[in-house]
Every structure is written in structure tokens, then in C-alpha cells.
Task: structure prediction
Amino acid sequence: MIALVVRRVSFLFVVIWTASTITFFVPRLSERNPIRERFAELARTGGFSPADLEAIIDSFSKQFGLDKPLFQQYLDYIWSVVRLDFGFSLNSYPATVTGLIAQSLPWTIGLLLVTTIISFVIGNLFGAIAAWPRAPAWSRNFALPFVLFMGVPPVLMGVLLVFFLGFQLQWLPLGGAYSIGIVPEWTLTFALDMLRHQVLPALALILGTIGLWVLTMRGMGITIQGEDYVNFAEHKGLSGFRIFRDYYLRNALLPQVTALALALGTVITSAIIVEAIFSLPGVGLLLINAIRANDFPVIYGIVLFITISVAVLMTLLEFLYPILDPRIRAQ
Result:
């Protein structure tokens, strides 16, 4: 087990180093200077004189370390990644990229964590019931609508929900984290208002992903039905619920954990885009605003942060797998 942990952690560091190196060198293949482009855009609206503009660009280039040799910039960049310091924001200077991400991260984690758990649990449960031969016919067909929703991406699902439930029926708010005029505070009124604003983005992510878990779990359930341990449990006279829980669902769930690790990148990307659609103050809206403002340090910082987060989560899920499957612990 110790050797397994060392190998996986070492591979995690290799992935983070590779992602950091790519994020550093790819933007530098272009001749575009992000600082010059950003302040040239401000000069067109702010009336900077050419001399002042060049002085500002030189000052910020020194601040961001762009006046150093490329190799020295790379070493400084790798050391900053180790310290989780992604530099300063051009658009919100002197705010740091890490500080901006930290302010937006709770909204993203709350939305992503809740929707992922709900879609994974409900999707796998409905998929297992749909393949269980002893389940009633009505329960096996209950998962059909979720499979139909699988063809609609979460982004398009969010647009449809906004139009029908928010605009046409006016059941739920169109966007935002909370209503205008409400002060964020630790009160029940604010909590209920905030949860009401999270319903549409959460539904967009859940309805857009739950069908995948239903289909894959149904396929795994059909495969497991003919296994010897399931037949042995039936011949022992165990109850249907115990066979379903301990022999059928538990073994069919193991490959789904691997599928969850592989789907984390897509899930996180969808959550970021859905956040931007509903104007939630999460990492997605921060990324969209940075793209609009040509705030390149924030863009690179968010991309690298997402890459590191996905790599860490996949490693944690890989450590979780031996806990679910005792055979791996024995090996």
C-alpha cells in the first residue's frame, strides 16, 4: 500500500509539473505581449500619453518578471506554482490571481459537489434498478426520461431551463447568486434565497449528466447478473434486497468510480460554463470576465488550477478504490 501511494503521488507531481510547463511555454510561443495589449486597450479609453504608456508597461513587465531571461522566468514560475502563487491580475491589480480564485471557489465547490453527488447516486441507483430482474416494471421504466435528457448538454439544458422555468413560468430566478437588495449574512432568509437561485444551475448539471450514469450502471448490472457470486447468493436463499445491495449494486458500482474519475474534467468544465450562464460568482464567471478583459494571468491561473484540481481528485478517487474493493487491498 505504501508503494502504491508513493507511485501515485509521484505521478501526480509529474502531471502537475507537465501541466505547469505547458501552461508556461504555450502562451510564449506567440509574439503577443499581454501587458502591452491590456494597457494599449486602456490607453484608447483613458487617454494615456505614449510616454506614460511605455513607462507603465515597463513597470508592470518588471513586476511580472518579464524582463528576466526565459529560463529564469520558468524557474520563478515553477516556484510560484509550488507556493500556489499565480501572480497578479492585470484587470484587478494589485489583487492576486490566487485571491480572486479563493473568493470564487466556494460557489463553484458548492454547486459542483452537490450536483455531482446527486447525479452519481441517483443515476447509479436508477440504473441498477432498471437492470434488476426482480424490480417492478414501473420502477425499471422510471429512469427513461433521464436517459432522454442525456442528449442535451448541460449548457443547452441551462438555457432551456432559464427560458421555460425562469422566463416563461417565472418560477425561479433567471440568474445571480442571490436577490438584489439582500445583504449576504448568516441568516435563514439569505440561505433560502441563495438556495432558490442555485436550483436552475443545479438542475442543468444534474439533468445533463444523470442519464450517463443510468446507462452505464444498467450495462454493468446486466453483466453482473450472470456472475457466479450472484447465483450463489440466490441459491443460499438470501433476501432480494440483500442480494441487490451486497452482491449486485456494490460490485456494479466499482467501475462507476473509475468512470467518475475520468468524467471529472468534463463535469468541472460544464459547471464553469453553467456558472457563467447563470451569472454565479464562481470560477466560471471569473474566467469569462478575464477573457473579456484580456486578463491573461487570471486565465492561465484558472486553467492551471483546474488542471491541478482534476489531477488531485483523480488521485484521491484512486486511493478510494481499494477501500471499495477488498481484492485490491489483498493484492
Summary: The chain has a mean pLDDT of 79. The chain has two domains: 2-82, 103-330.
